[in-house]
Amino acid sequence: MHRRRTSAPRTSPSASSTRSTVTTRTAAAVAVLLAVPGLAGCGGGGLTPGTAAVLDGRRIPVDAVEARVAALRHAPDGVSADARWETEGPARRAVTELVLDAVVARAVADRGPAVAASEVAAARTEEERRLGGAGRLARALAEHGVPAEAIDDRLGRELGIRRLAAAAGADAGTPAGDAAVRRILAATANAHHLRVNPRYGTWDPDRAALAPAVRSRPTG
Questions:
Q1: Could you report the per-residue pLDDT of 115-139, keeping only the tens digit for each?
Q2: Which of the chain's ends, N or C, has fewer CB atoms near its CB within 10 Å?
Q3: Are 209 and 34 in contact (CB under 8 A)?
Q4: Which of 179, 157, 29, 143 is nearest to 98 (CA)?
Q5: Tens digit of pLDDT for each residue in 68-111?
Q6: Are 55 and 193 spatial neighbours (Cβ–Cβ below 8 Å)?
Q7: What average pLDDT does this structure show over 148-152?
Q8: Which helix (H) or strand (E) segment is 64 a member of?
Q9: Is 8 exposed, middle or buried (0-12, 13-18, 19+ CB in 10 A)?
Q10: Are strands 202-204 and 51-55 parallel, antiparallel or unpaired?
């Protein structure tokens, strides 16, 4: 999952060049952020009703999952444009995204100051400038399963990933940095008792995503 750095046109990028640039940058980030073996280790036993997941006692409510899925279904070129969403199921992918946001934020907070809102705003301004406007950024990210409402969350997560790699003395865009970040996130999930509601599946480390829960067939 080595991140390739590709420069983008500075002025009036075409739709195809915009999509290509965001694909390169976002795919690299997604590779790091989604490929976290062992992230959800405890299953969903004992979760209160209406809870999709819990990390360090903090709930990710089912309402948040439903809101994320609804936002994607109404976004231009949203859910249907991303094959991974179609194969995994929007709700399961939404839980994966929300869990990763929480784990990255917790890992960063454990090691120093959290990513500031001003840092996220600056990153968003730079991406909009580079891609040719807020609309282009929103459309490009919607194609990768990120609704407009979650753009700041995604940018904050990317900033957090870079900070975690730097704290480990590595670059998030290198194999060594990628491996360091995976170890940090897995350790954070375990240390803060991450649990995921089995309604959304179980963590599959090979696919680096929530996989459908396997239900045993009745015997006899």
A1: 999 999 999 999 999 999 999 999 8
A2: C
A3: yes
A4: 157
A5: 888 877 766 544 444 444 545 788 888 888 988 998 999 999 99
A6: yes
A7: 92
A8: helix 62-73
A9: middle
A10: unpaired
pTM: 0.74
> Residue 3 is encoded by which pair of tokens?
């991140």
Q: How many CB atoms lie within 10 A of CB 94?
A: 29
3 state DSSP class of 201: coil
Range 204-216 burial, b when 16+ CB lie within 10 A, else e: eeeebbbeeeeee
Retrieve residue 51's tokens.
């809870």
CA angle 157, 16, 140 (to 5 degrees): 25
Q: What residue type is 180 in one-letter code? A: A
Structure-block tokens of residue 81: 């444009």
Q: And the tokens for 166?
A: 């730097």
Position 54: which residue type?
A: V
Q: How many residues appear in the chain?
A: 220
Contact 40, 202 (CB under 8 A): yes
